[in-house]
Design a protein that fits this description.
Largest sheet: 2 strands, antiparallel
Number of strands: 2
Order of helices and strands: HEEHHHHHHHHHHHH
Radius of gyration: 26 Å
CATH topology of the largest domain: MetI-like fold
Number of helices: 13
Structural class: mainly alpha
Shape: globular
CATH architecture of the largest domain: Orthogonal Bundle
Length: about 300
């Protein structure tokens, strides 16, 4: 009997070994891509951040001079201010709009699939060059917005993208408009909340507003947290909108000079690739720090059912 058990164990071990080899074989393309496309370039950029590298000559090691130089770079500091303003204004507005639309769609209206597709469409096109060009025309001096305002009696409305005080907020509005992706995630989360909670609250006399704050928001908080982290990371990487709307210059008066746009200018326009690599790693540290802060703060407001 023990011999049969041993034989069965050996066969089971061979089968497990075969399954593991098959799994590693299927994972091999992804692992190769991870090493060659992600980890390899990251290590190379970390090395380049400590060098003076212009793409036209071999990199020259200069230590931490690029990082010290960033501390005195006024345009870099301004780009950080612009980017932080963009992130912390556009992200809450986008998530609030996405949640509001998701709650509306969750009521089971007729043609839900159609409306869901229509609202998701801007997320597919929001970062495209064509939409950014269209946005530039809409908010131009003679654009659609100003034509409507003139029709309403405003004789000389400003050129929204030409005014330093309003140019950034036109891009914020573009980001808010691409609310489809978080909306779909919110809608999926709302569908997972058991209806018995709302039925019990209705029996107790709770209003719809009370049900929303006492039931929907706590049970949806993990989804809100997930969307918040993703959208903050994505907003810090925004580039196309600012590049197209400002003509690649971050104007007027650097009011739309996103950090990613300034990094592009340093690396590919001025061929200061070592400095651009250092800027990229600073962005990694900033995003990583904010993500860590979000995870720490989530302990105080994110509710998990288990």
């Amino acid at each position: 009997m023990s011999a049969l058990n041993e034989l069965s164990r050996l066969r089971g071990g061979k089968q497990e070994s075969t399954d593991n080899k098959a799994a590693y074989l299927f994972l091999l393309p992804w692992l190769i891509g991870l090493l060659l496309i992600t980890i390899g370039p990251m290590i190379a950029s970390l090395y380049l951040s400590f060098t003076d590298y212009s793409l036209l000559a071999p990199p020259e090691w200069i230590g931490i001079k690029n990082y010290v130089r960033m501390m005195g770079d006024a345009r870099l500091l301004n780009s950080l201010r612009v980017t932080f303003t963009y992130v912390f204004v556009s992200t809450p507005l986008q998530l609030a709009l996405a949640l509001a639309i998701a709650v509306l769609l969750n009521r089971g209206m007729r043609g839900l699939a159609f409306y869901r597709s229509v609202f998701y469409l801007p997320s597919l096109m929001g970062s495209s060059v064509a939409i950014a060009l269209l946005w530039r025309q809409i908010f131009g001096t003679d654009g659609l917005v100003n034509q409507i305002l003139r029709g309403l009696g405003w004789a000389n409305p400003p050129g929204w993208i030409a005014d330093p005080s309003t140019a950034l907020y036109t891009i914020v509005l573009l980001h808010v408009w691409t609310f489809g992706s978080p909306m779909i995630i919110f809608l999926a989360g709302l569908r997972q909340i058991p209806t018995m909670y709302y039925e019990a609250a209705s029996v107790d006399g709770a209003s719809k507003w009370t049900q929303f704050w006492r039931i929907t928001m706590p049970l949806l908080s993990p989804i809100i947290f997930f969307n918040l982290v993703l959208q903050i990371i994505g907003a810090f990487q925004s580039f196309t909108q600012a590049f197209i709307v400002s003509g690649g210059q971050g104007g007027p008066s650097d009011s739309t000079m996103f950090y990613s746009l300034y990094l592009y200018q340093k690396g590919f326009a001025q061929l200061d690739m070592g400095y651009a690599a250092a800027m990229a790693w600073l962005l990694v540290l900033i995003v990583g720090a904010l993500t860590a802060v979000n995870f720490i703060l989530s302990k105080f407001w994110v509710f998990y059912d288990d």
